[in-house]
Amino acid sequence: MKIIQSFWSNIAYERQIHNASGWLSAEYHWMSWALSVLTLREHYGQVEIFTDSRGKEILIDTLALPYSHCSIALDRLQGYPEDMWALGKIFTYSLQNEPFMHVDGDIYLWEALGARLEQAALIAQNPEVDFQYYYQTLSEMQQHFAYIPDCMRRQMNEIPVRSCNTGLIGGTRMDIFKKYAELSFELIHKNQEALSKINRRTFNIGFEQFLYYCLAKEHGVPVTYLIEREEDFDPTYRGFARFESVPYQTKFIHALGDFKRQPETCRHLARRLRQDYPEYYYRIIEECKAAGVALDCRYYGQVSHPSVGSKPTDGLNGSGVNSPKEAYRVYYEQDVRQYRKVQELFSLPLLPFLTQKLQFSEQVQLVENTTQEGTLEQTLIVPDIYTLAEKSIGLDPLNMVLLDAFLEEPISIQEAIERVAPYFKVEEVSAEKEKFRQLVSDRIKELMYWGALVVE
After folding, report:
1. What domains sit in the chain, N to C, each tagged with a CATH number?
2. Least confident of 115-124, 188-197, 323-332, 419-428
3. Residues 421, 423, 428, CA angle at the centre, nearest 5°?
4. How far is it between the farthest Cα atoms of the chain?
5. Following DSSP, what letter does each residue of 84-128 receive, concatenated?
6. In 112-189, which ranges are continuous DSSP H helix?
7. How distant, in Å, are the alpha carbons of 106, 253, 272 from that of 250?
8. What Pfam families does the database record attribute to this sequence (predicted)?
């Protein structure tokens, strides 16, 4: 099955490199595209990109992302409203003449999707049932649109509304995708005057996904989902961007919606790209700096890397008005090592993992305070390479107890688990030993990512 991606550039940016596209900062936008194609190519040898001339300039000519083929067919969309971003994807589907899978640029894979999806007639990421934004979109369409495809109209008043997430989409039924594109553009053309009266952001999501679902139902073709669960599905997609568990537990991430604006998600994305594909990470940093992009991470040291071939600038040498403090070079290097150490530790088999000793980091301070009510509070003070300042992290009771176990001397993870156990009910620990061990292990991981615990 052919693996494809699409990027319809935003003409509002004279230079696309400044386009953050909903991300916290522009560098994360391009790091996302890099990590997406690079992880795809680990499992699928060929990945094609469908874009326009501006898209090719940034993705291929500037960032040199390793696509096997680049088409600029989306130049033909010139004149369509740029905020109707779903059209770029749907037009790309219409260009395909063989079975394909389209993967959004904010999806990353650490294993192949498997024959169940790759051989399916129609593919989607997961079903969406009773998601509220559909009701707004469908209501606006019924109120303002002169034309709505019959297959949509027949499903619009069904309660609950059923649809699907098309972060992953594709299949073998090319006839359905041709019809899908035809109806999509017909919907836009026949309702141009009404587009100004609706919420286009939710309309993009609603019509793209709902029309696909309706068309599949109209043809009597079942959609095969990567994630099939419908019951108790969180519409915020909580847990879909768990970078902290890649690759030993998490094999699929979709950093959709609000994930793009969460600093923790963005910085995990950056660290993952830096660790696994440093050449692309440092190239993106260098190109963004050269273009004057305001980087989220204020630490400019160590961005020069042998694979980039660039020479140190005044920022790298620790001089100049906006240069980082030299002391943060040490913290940056520790951040690189620590991220790798966490990945290595949590990829170990159980016994070596439990016997590994950890210790409290010398680079972190632990501040204690007693409230007027007599409650003990603890705060970690850690150096932050993103702000070039100290960051305060308040500890909850479990992290306080857990960290206390490591303050006197290095101990093994198993010892830490045993020292925390008395703070829980005996029957809880004995009945759910694996869940309890996982809970404590996750908290150890969190403390390690903060830099509070390090491998002895």
Report:
1. 2-225 (3.90.550.10), 350-455 (3.30.390)
2. 323-332
3. 65
4. 72
5. -THHHHHHHHHT--S-EEEE-TTEEESS---HHHHT-SEEEEEEE
6. 115-118, 132-144, 150-153, 174-189
7. 15, 7, 13
8. DUF6734
